[in-house]
Design a protein that fits this description.
The structure is a single chain. By secondary structure, this protein is α+β, with helices and mostly antiparallel strands. The chain is about 65% helix and about 5% strand. It has 2 domains: about 1-80, Glutaredoxin; about 80-215, Glutathione S-transferase Yfyf (Class Pi), Chain A, domain 2, CATH 1.20.1050. It is globular, with a radius of gyration of 17 Å. A 4-stranded mixed beta sheet has the order 2-1-3-4, sandwiched between helices. It has 11 helices and 4 strands.
Length: about 220
Amino acid sequence: MKLYRFDYSCYARKVQMVLDLLNLRYDIEEVPFLDRSKLINLTGGYIQVPVLLMDDGTVLKDSRVICKSLLSGDNAERLTPSPWQGPIWAYADWCDSALEDVLFRLASPGIRNRFKTASEKAFFSFIKERKFGEGCVDQWARQSGELVSKARSLLRPTLETLSKQAFIFGDQPTYADATLYGHVKMVEISDPDLLTDIAPDLRLWLNRLTEFSHR
């Protein structure tokens, strides 16, 4: 298998963690931000990440679709064990909606700063501004403290759970952990200090999950 990604993409990181927790072999293809020709050739025109090229040649797009496919058959019980399938998927969908809405704003200024060229930075800003308005990334940078507070509030129940057990649904990681991982990793890549600002215990869980996935 081959995973096409941007290294900071929360959705690509989620898929990558699912692959790791399932002990599946795969290669990573880093997609240049301004040159998505490989994605176009592979998908017939789709230019977003993640994309997963399966061993049989099937091309999967959209992180939820990819994970749904990976978590079928025997793999379903490993990361969405019965009878917790509903709550696990619901938590993951919450991460990909309400939580993502705050964390991507928090991470965007730092992600933009990581790009090496002015063209990359300008295109990154343009993509965000098409949806959220001119100057939105700069505005989010100014609102960093407010966004950290919102993130801390949203994650407080999760952190209370993680203070009592290793992972969100018990002593084994699930798809819920993989999904949260994607968003937390995005923030860490943007600026490691932001993760500490939200909650130092998040890093402990992040390290614990990473170590588990490498067993």
